[in-house]
Design a protein that fits this description.
This protein is of the alpha/beta class. The chain contains nine helices and nine strands. A five-stranded mixed barrel has the order 5-8-7-6-9, surrounded by five helices. Helix 6 links the parallel strand 7 and strand 8. The N terminus is likely disordered.
Length: 302
């Protein structure tokens, strides 16, 4: 099946067997080196613009955030995320698989209902591919959402934690591997103001219940142990999860403004009795109203 056609994406990472093969015929004709993540993102950005138009912001919906996406505005067009060649289908309960162009006031917002993770067996470039594609397609603001465990008992379930900084403890980086082409910036990007101060201020002004905090991103595949939570607390983390950190690095590297927010869906291990994914989704559904207001405020500040 040709590159860019519905259902054509079946790669699991940038080292899939059919990398380097030309794709011809059908709805699109394109030949490129698919083991170059930068070239692949550029090609998918062109495909996305052709299908949905040019966005100026992107919202990535994490676990439990699906209902929030419907509150952002009217949908103009949509497509399966897997039509983007570098995006494998998500396998995690609570993650959608659709990219929608939403009209939100005077902004054209790309809403990505789903993401993939390192713990699903993907490489860092595959994990950030959706965000990287969105920025190359025209998004100047990147809004990353996730579900997280709180390390602070006073910041309970349903709280929105606006990310001030992060700890990338995944052991991976989207800037490792093939170097970016010169037009996409130097590999060693400055992460001093990774999460944009103006967007953070807009979010906290819109949600009096919101707090700021540091997000610790881990590889995942299992919830953390109580000992790991004590370690993370000592390192300065306020919330912990299994996503976001790589996407934030990739977006900032390309010059986008980055905003991140965690929905607290549980207290971290050792602070409550048990943990399960179903309660993550339930907490998201219960908090959809005020989370939508928060994201609308951030988009309005763009």
């Amino acid at each position: 099946m040709p590159l860019g056609c519905p259902g054509s994406n079946r790669i699991e990472g940038i080292d899939a067997d059919y990398m380097q093969q030309p794709r011809t015929g059908g709805c699109n004709t394109l030949t490129m080196s698919l083991d170059d993540p930068w070239e692949l993102a550029s090609a998918d950005a062109e495909l996305l613009r052709g299908r949905l138009g040019t966005p100026d912001a992107v919202v990535v919906l994490g676990s439990g955030w699906a209902e929030v996406g419907t509150s952002l505005g009217s949908v103009e067009a949509e497509m399966p995320m897997s039509d983007l060649v570098g995006v494998p289908p998500p396998t995690v309960l609570g993650h959608g698989s659709t990219a929608s162009m939403v009209s939100a006031g005077d902004r054209r917002v790309l809403v990505m209902a789903g993401r993939v993770h390192l713990y699903e067996g993907h490489g860092a470039h595959t994990v950030v591919h959706g965000v990287r594609t969105a920025v190359l397609a025209g998004c100047r603001d990147v809004l990353l959402t996730n579900a997280a465990g709180s390390l602070r008992p006073e910041v309970g379930v349903g709280s929105a934690v606006v990310l001030e900084d992060q700890l990338n403890l995944t052991g991976a980086s989207p800037l490792a591997g093939p170097p970016p082409p010169p037009e996409m910036g130097a590999r060693f990007a400055d992460m001093t103001d990774l999460y944009d101060p103006d967007l953070r201020a807009a979010a906290l002004a819109a949600d009096p219940r919101g707090v700021g905090g540091v997000y610790a991103g881990l590889l995942g595949g299992a919830f953390e142990t109580p000992a790991e939570i004590r370690m993370l607390s000592g390192m300065g983390a306020d919330v912990v999860g299994m996503s976001t950190v790589l996407e934030a690095i990739a977006a900032r590297h390309l010059g986008a403004r980055v905003f991140g927010v965690s929905l607290v869906t549980n207290l971290a291990a050792g602070l409550q009795d048990t943990l399960d994914h179903e309660e993550v989704l339930a907490a998201g559904a219960a908090s959809a109203g005020h989370l939508g207001v928060l994201l609308q405020a951030v988009l309005g500040a763009g």
